Task: structure prediction
Amino acid sequence: EPEVTQTPSHQVTQMGQEVILRCVPISNHLYFYWYRQILGQKVEFLVSFYNNEISEKSEIFDDQFSVERPDGSNFTLKIRSTKLEDSAMYFCASSRESSYNEQFFGPGTRLTVL
Amino acid sequence: GENVEQHPSTLSVQEGDSAVIKCTYSDSASNYFPWYKQELGKRPQLIIDIRSNVGEKKDQRIAVTLNKTAKHFSLHITETQPEDSAVYFCAASIYSTLTFGKGTMLLVSP
Result:
């Protein structure tokens, strides 16, 4: 069964550094998402992406964040200047359609900002 | 924006018992309600979902009920097994964005 994959599984960075988290969505899916989960807290929506554009974004997704689909398979989340409070598990998800449709989650990237 | 409340935060049951997890949502426009199971260190995985035009859905030992008037939906697991132990998240969606509850840690003791 196809799965969403994410790399790296764990990223440690210094405050102020840029990080890029990578995701490979399921191949026939058209909608892509990033969520984050701070340790012990709920999963929070960051951004959704369709047809090479951001569809929706949350208040968390400020100017420090950006997303890109640089080729036909990868979907990336960039944090320009990391802050301590960016430490979290970041999940990528994809779905075939937008509404009423299962979102398949990747295994996550644990980001630790020191 | 949408707000989802989930209770209880932890639930301990004996194997074979039933477990019920409850969620409420705030935005009456929400129309899709999935439930995800997350085992320790693993990705969230969908276990069941329900659309707003349906009141109840069942899949073997798992069922979900939705009360649109009360803006309330629940997950029911019957005949629980130790492998059901995990964190369960409810979510509500209007278009595609999922708003999650805080999660319920279910512990099933043999």
Remarks:
- Chain B touches chain A at residues 31-32, 34, 36, 42-46, 49, 51, 89, 91, 93, 95-103 (CB under 8 Å).
- The first strand of chain B starts at residue 4 and ends at 7.
- The CA atoms of residues 18 and 78 of chain B lie 4 Å apart.
